[in-house]
Amino acid sequence: xxxxxxxxxxxxxxxxxxxxxxxxxxxxxxxxxxxxxxxxxxxxxxxxxxxxxxxxxxxxxxxxxxxxxxxxxxxxxxxxxxxxxxxxxxxxxxxxxxxxxxxxxxxxxxxxxxxxxxxxxxxxxxxxxxxxxxxxxxxxxxxxxxxxxxxxxxxxxxxxxxxxxxxxxxxxxxxxxxxxxxxxxxxxxxx
Length: 191
Fold this sequence. Notes:
Blueprint: E1 2-8, H1 10-77, H2 83-118, H3 136-145, H4 155-176, E2 182-187
Antiparallel strand pairs: 1-2
Helix pairs in contact: 1-2, 1-4
């Protein structure tokens, strides 16, 4: 029967410390990944709200241009304005149409992006609730109170600090390889 136990082994101690730092880095990466996912979902949600607001604005502009054209048409029929004014109103309506279609496409794309980030089927019908104005006060508060502003809590900075510490420990580990170690050994034999 033979047994040995290291009593003093600096390289082993550094290796254990390096393993602990590796676990700490994995935990920090998982926390960062979760926060990134939350940020992506929030960005997709707010992007969808913004696209819907833009669509409503362009739709209102189009409807206003149509009403303006109808009023201009009535005035032109009554011979109160020139043909130039009628053409200008007609052009305004024609210019508003592509903006409405582009805004509608932006809403569809924003919803697809939200579905993709959430991991739901792209064919599923979903819609976002609320308006962008509902979140305006909270957005400013979140920016002012966000913990990412404090670089001590920033996940990327923490990961870089842990990686720097791991590199320093790896250098020490290589240096400690040349340091002699002391082990306690026990040997029992019977014939």
